[in-house]
Amino acid sequence: MDLIKTLGLFVITALAEIIGCYLPYLWLKQDRSVWLLIPAAISLAAFVWLLTLHPQAAGRVYAAYGGVYVSVALLWLWAVDSIRPTVTDWVGVGVVLIGLVIIMFGHRHA
Predict the structure, then answer these.
(1) Measured between alpha carbons, how far is 5 from 40 in angstroms, rounded to an integer?
(2) Where are the domains positioned within the chain?
(3) Helix-, strand-, coil-residue percentages of the chain, each rounded to 5
(4) 3-41, pLDDT tens digit by residue?
């Protein structure tokens, strides 16, 4: 169950980071309202706070989180930007998820 909770937390963290970066993008590149910066800042603050909820060493958490982030970003590309990922996109996600598994399960306390 800890694994499911950890992965769920990573997914929520990734969404907070992506939203926090996507909203300023909308303001800067698509001429949307400057008011989008307020929820963007809140989302990025939530992202930082969510990363602190993991009991493992920060560097290991950030490294493993990277694999989930890449996966969620690719799904965001598909769902929000309406761009279907390519085969090489999916292969890349597979590679980073293998890295995540190595990081998460390779470390054992002595």
Answers:
(1) 25
(2) 2-106
(3) 80, 0, 20
(4) 788 888 999 999 999 999 999 999 999 999 999 999 999
